[in-house]
Each structure stands twice: as C-alpha cells, then as structure tokens.
Amino acid sequence: QVQLVESGGGLVQPGGSLRLSCAASTSIFRFSYMAWHRLVPGKQRELVAGITDGGSANYGASVEGRFTISRGDARNTVYLQMDSLKPEDTAVYYCHAARYGGANYWGRGTQVTVSP
C-alpha cells in the first residue's frame, strides 16, 4: 500500500511563507504526476498546483505567481513553496500522486492557517 505523507503546514501571518513537503512510501516506481489540492469546509476541493514527471507545472488561478511546485531529487517527493500567503489560503492541503497506468493516491492532509 503506497502512502503519501505531507508535512510543513502550520500557522503563518498574512504575507508570510510556508513550504509543504510530500513524500511517498515507495521509490519502486515513479509517479507520472504529483499535485497539491486544498479543501475548505463547505467548498469544493481545489487544485492548487501540479507537476508532471517531465517537470511541466500548472497552477490554480488563485495561487499563480505566489506558489511554486517542484519535485525533489529523491524519487516521488514533491514540494509546494507558498509565498505572499493570504487568509483565503487557509485550508487543508492534500498531496495527490498518479501512477502511469492510472492508480491514484492521496495523503491525509496538512492544515495551513493564515491569520494575524
């Protein structure tokens, strides 16, 4: 069973930065795509950013220019650098990974709170 473990969430003031990390429990295969999504109670899950195995990245409109996604040197790790954080970025952030062939995996989430 593949597990994704997120870390790096916490409380930060508006305008501050946080870096989220996600690591998979296996390096036997490489994920074709890794991404970060976020969920606010009462709202739909939102794609924050994703990145392919080849390094092509895509971002949600609300975070474009403020967040940066990258894959680590270690196989099956992904990071989300979040800068210029706003209160509306407050959410639970989930790591998602897709294998070649279609299997999908999700982490358990990490809370990010942006508040004075």
Describe this structure in words.
- The protein has 116 residues and is mainly beta.
- It has strands at 4-7, 10-12, 18-24, 31-39, 46-52, 57-59, 67-71, 77-82, 91-99, 104-106, 110-114.
- It is globular and about 45 Å long.
- The model has no long low-confidence stretch (mean pLDDT 94).
Query: What percent of residues adopt helix (DSSP H or I)?
Result: under 10%
Q: Oligomer, anyone?
A: single chain
Tally the beta strands.
11
| Helical/strand content category | mainly beta
Mean pLDDT metric: 94
The main sheet comes to: 7 strands, mixed
Number of helices, counting only DSSP H or I runs of 4 residues or more: 0
Unreliable stretches, pLDDT < 50, 5 or more residues? none
Radius of gyration: 14 Å
What is the CA-CA span between the terminal residues?
40 Å
Gross geometry:
globular
Give a short synopsis of this structure.
By secondary structure, this protein is mainly beta. It contains no helices and 11 strands. A hairpin with a 4-residue loop joins strand 5 (46-52) and strand 6 (57-59).
